[in-house]
From TrEMBL:
The gene is dinB. Monomer. It is found in: Cytoplasm. Its cofactor is Mg(2+). GO terms for molecular function: damaged DNA binding; DNA-directed DNA polymerase activity; magnesium ion binding. This is DNA polymerase IV. The keyword Protein biosynthesis does not apply. It comes from Sphingomonas endophytica. Keywords: Cytoplasm, DNA damage, DNA repair, DNA replication, DNA-binding, DNA-directed DNA polymerase, Magnesium, Metal-binding, Mutator protein, Nucleotidyltransferase, Transferase.
Length: 360
C-alpha cells in the first residue's frame, strides 16, 4: 500500500492576525476579537494576548482581568472569509484533495505530488511561503502519514513552523503526549481518562480494547487506534457540512419578548447569509435558549421541504422562540441553527409540529 502524505495547515491566530495585519496600531499588542461588553466573549486572541491566558470562548471580563491592556476589536467575518478563499486557492495549486475544517485550517493529501516537490515537507514549506506572500499571514503545518498525527503535528511548532511525524516514529511519539492533546478527546473525556489513570498516550495504549469499550462505548475503537498512531480516514474533499448556526450572548438577561425575538431574528439573518452564499438549504431549524441560571433548552422544527427563503427561516425561528415565551426567567443567550441540508426544492414549506428538546 502507498503511504499517504498528509498535511494539516492551521493559520496562526487567524482572526486576530488579520486584524493586526490591517491595523498597524495593533501589531505587537495583545488583541482579542470579540466584544468587551460585560457579557461579551473572546472569539480569538493574538499570541501576545495568549501569554496572559486569554483564549477563545473566555468571558471578556475574565480576559480583561488577566490582561488589562487587552484591545478588543469587532469581528469582520466577510474579511476573514475572503482571506480564507485566498488561502484555499493556494492549497489548490498543490493538491486536488482538500478537506476544509474551518476558515483557517484544512487537511491536504499531497501523495500525488502535484508540483513535483518530491517530499511533503517541501510542499508544506512552499504552501506556507505562498500564503505569507499573498496574504501577509503566517501558517503552521503538520506533516504525517495520517490525519490524526498531521493535526497533532501542526500544533507542535506553532506559530509559523512545521513538524513531521514519520511512520517510523508515529506510535512512539503518540505515547509521549498527554491525552488532552488528542483530537477527539475533549475536556470531559480527558478528565474521565485521568480518573481511570490514563494520563498519556502510553497509558491509553496499555489499556485493552475491552476496558476501553466498558468505559467509552462506541469511541473505544477510535481511542485504541490513535494510541497506536493509526488512523485510516482519507482526506475527503466532498465532506458535507451538516449545519450552520449563530448565537449571541446578551449584555444583560432579557425577559421582554420583543427583545428576545429581535435577537433570534438577528441570528437567523446571520445563518441565512451563510446558507444563501453557499446555496445550502436545510429542512431543520433549531432555536437554542440559555437562561441566566445557565439552564439550556432547544426547540426544533423539521419539515419535508427545505427552508428556502429568509422569511421562511424568520417564521420558523419566531414560532420556535415563541413556544417558550413569555418567560419570567431572564434569557442570557439565544442561537439559531439550520441543519439537514438538501437541494432547494421549494420556496415555501408546509407547517409542521414543533418538537421540543431540553438539555441540561
Amino acid at each position: 500500500m502507498v503511504t499517504r502524505k498528509i498535511i494539516h495547515v492551521d493559520m496562526d491566530a487567524f482572526f486576530a492576525s488579520v486584524e493586526q495585519r490591517d491595523d498597524p496600531n495593533l501589531r505587537g499588542r495583545p488583541v482579542a476579537v470579540g466584544s468587551a461588553a460585560a457579557r461579551g466573549v473572546v472569539a480569538a486572541a493574538s499570541y501576545e494576548a495568549r501569554k496572559f491566558g486569554v483564549r477563545s470562548a473566555l468571558p471578556s471580563v475574565t480576559a480583561l482581568r488577566r490582561c488589562p491592556d487587552l484591545l478588543f476589536v469587532r469581528p469582520r467575518f466577510e474579511v476573514y472569509r475572503e482571506v480564507s478563499r485566498q488561502i484555499h486557492a493556494v492549497f489548490g495549486r498543490y493538491t486536488d484533495l482538500i478537506q476544509p475544517l474551518s476558515l483557517d485550517e484544512a487537511y491536504l493529501d499531497v501523495t500525488a505530488d502535484k508540483q513535483g516537490l518530491e517530499t511533503a515537507w517541501r510542499t508544506a514549506k512552499a504552501i506556507r511561503a505562498d500564503i505569507l506572500a499573498e496574504t501577509g499571514l503566517t501558517a503552521s503545518a503538520g506533516i504525517s502519514y495520517n490525519k490524526f498525527l498531521a493535526k497533532l503535528a501542526s500544533d507542535h511548532r506553532k506559530p509559523n513552523g512545521q513538524f513531521a511525524v514519520t511512520p517510523e516514529m508515529g506510535a512512539a511519539w503518540v505515547e509521549t503526549l498527554p491525552v488532552d492533546r488528542f483530537h477527539g478527546v475533549g475536556p470531559v473525556t480527558a478528565r474521565k481518562m485521568k480518573g481511570l489513570g490514563i494520563e498519556t498516550g502510553a497509558d491509553l495504549r496499555a489499556k485493552p480494547l475491552e476496558f476501553l469499550q466498558a468505559h467509552f462505548g462506541s469511541s473505544a475503537h477510535w481511542y485504541y487506534s490513535i494510541a497506536r498512531g493509526e488512523d485510516d480516514r482519507p482526506v475527503n474533499p466532498n465532506r458535507v457540512r451538516k449545519s450552520s448556526g449563530s448565537e449571541t450572548t446578551f449584555d444583560r438577561d432579557l425577559v421582554e419578548a420583543a427583545e428576545i425575538e429581535a435577537g433570534v431574528l438577528q441570528m437567523a439573518d446571520d445563518v441565512w447569509r451563510w446558507c444563501e452564499s453557499r446555496q445550502a438549504f436545510g429542512r431543520t431549524v433549531t432555536v437554542k435558549v440559555k437562561y441566566g441560571d445557565f439552564h439550556q433548552i432547544t426547540r426544533r422544527r423539521s419539515q419535508p421541504m427545505v427552508v428556502a427563503t429568509r422569511d421562511a427561516l424568520h417564521r420558523a425561528a419566531l414560532e420556535l422562540i415563541r413556544s417558550v415565551l413569555p418567560t419570567q426567567k431572564g434569557v442570557r443567550l439565544v442561537g439559531v441553527t439550520v441543519s439537514n441540508f438538501a437541494d432547494a426544492q421549494a420556496t415555501t414549506a408546509p407547517e409542521l409540529a414543533i418538537f421540543a428538546e431540553a438539555a441540561a
